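Known limitations

Files may contain more than one protein. Parsers should not assume a single record per file. Below, a two-record file is shown to illustrate correct handling: read the sequence, read the token line, then continue until end of file.
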Amino acid sequence: MQFIQAKHHGGNENTPVTRLVIHATCPDTGYPSASRAGRAASTARYFQSTSRPTSAHYVCDVTATVQCLSEETIGYHAPPNAHSIGIEICADGGSKSSFDNPSHSYTREQWLSPQVWPAVERAAILARDICHRHHIPVRKLSTAQVKSGMSGICGHDNVSDAFHQSDHDDPGPYFPWDRFMAAITNTHPEELTMADVKELKASIVSAQQQLHHDVGVVQNQNGMLKKQIENLSWVKNPVTGKLWRTKDALWSIWYYILEVRTRLQKIENRLSDLERKVK
């Protein structure tokens, strides 16, 4: 995980951590620009250079997570900040009135879209790990529960309403808390996430491209191979030690290439089915 040190922060007395606060970065650029790849690093660089006293521990976009502070360090993300960890999700999440352009406020459907959900999913996986390491109960806190000091997970809006030390209302009224909390509690490794499916599909595409290249090389050199086959009679099977007719050996290799290509196609079809189920 990339680390870009935030400029502003408190001391190293942040433990024990009792509250995990979810934020939205709110660049006011609209859907899906606010969540695109590279936003996590650019937000972290903003924390690194800004004169404003603001920072968070982690920032997540659709392709990357960047750490900006150690978890033992107090971040300036949702006062009172001590004993809390802040995760920023790159998105325009907040009430319509909090944006210069109200239409930039993400709807629930936009939060759940393939252009944004991978960032939320990254934050959920990170939240699962943080809660496990700091013994934070995986439960969504209400404003009243935050104010009472209960340990758990909440939004910046809950902290603002509980203590009135900030006026931010991210991640906003349309943030899909139900799906986010479900993603945190999903501890079944056999259930693929959208990020897993995308990664596997990319691997399959790469393998197919390599296979097509190899097949093309074989086809382009067919004339030369034919002449060489005519000049050869036998080859030794490296496994059994028996002699093979060269032509039979090459045909066996060719059929193996075709079989691999068929299997890769089946895997790609299965991944497409899984991707539709994840969506």
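...continuing to the second record:
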Amino acid sequence: MTDTPTVRKRQVGRILRELRERAGMTHDDVAGRIEFSTAKISRIESGQNKIVVRDVRDLLDIYGAPDDLRSQVLDLVGQAEGPRYWQPFERHLPKVQRTYLSLESEASLLRGIDMYAFHPLLQTTDYARAVLAADWRGGVDDTRRAQLLALRVARQDLIGRAENPLGVSLFVDESVLRRPIGGVEVLREQLHHVQALVESPHIDIRVVPTKVGLHPGMDGAFTLLHFDEPDMEVGYVQHRDGCLYLQRSRELDELGRRIRTLEALAFPASATAGFIGYLMGEIG
């Protein structure tokens, strides 16, 4: 998927489509009134096109949008094309990762499973530094690594902000809680951090115990993003050479099936803090 619509773009597109249909106009009708191709109109309505304020104003004029709705749409345009928290780090990020960060920043709920390390949204600074230091791929120098660490810290505002924080519902393989990334002291601090996070009403972390044997996470970690915009979900699977975005119904259904299986296998969320306390007792 080369160009994923963000939620704001999709909202703008949906409203414009509804206004066009309410006006009884086809794509051809609109194209005859403005210097747009029908393909461009379709891309705008599906959230795939870069939003240009002038274009949106022209379409609102054609559809005779009322003033209050016009203001609402133009506000959404400003949000869709406004600055992102990750833009200071943009030169260190490939386009596919920028796309993911845009989607994650507009999501209402993030679900998934992590198999080898805690999710970046849950990591302490020292733990994140150790994860980045363990990146054995070439081309990651100290400057880029420092920028990526600063990005991870900035990213965590999504779950820490006071207004509309991102909801998190994650499964984590038990091995992650035992793996001393950065050493025992760093792991202990990380476990304390997660223990505190699960007290937040919008954060749900469940441990998949080793004793269950094989489970759906063994096929690889994945993330499923949910949005307030109707009928919009995006699956994300990262691998060594890049990532995959999943939006087809059958793909999303499969991720949903894996999550339901994990729900049946994992400890309840209410047990997470206690289990972490037990593990810290083992660590000493």
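Parsers that stop after the first record will miss the second one. For reference, the second record is described as follows. Residues 111 and 239 are 18 Å apart (CA to CA).
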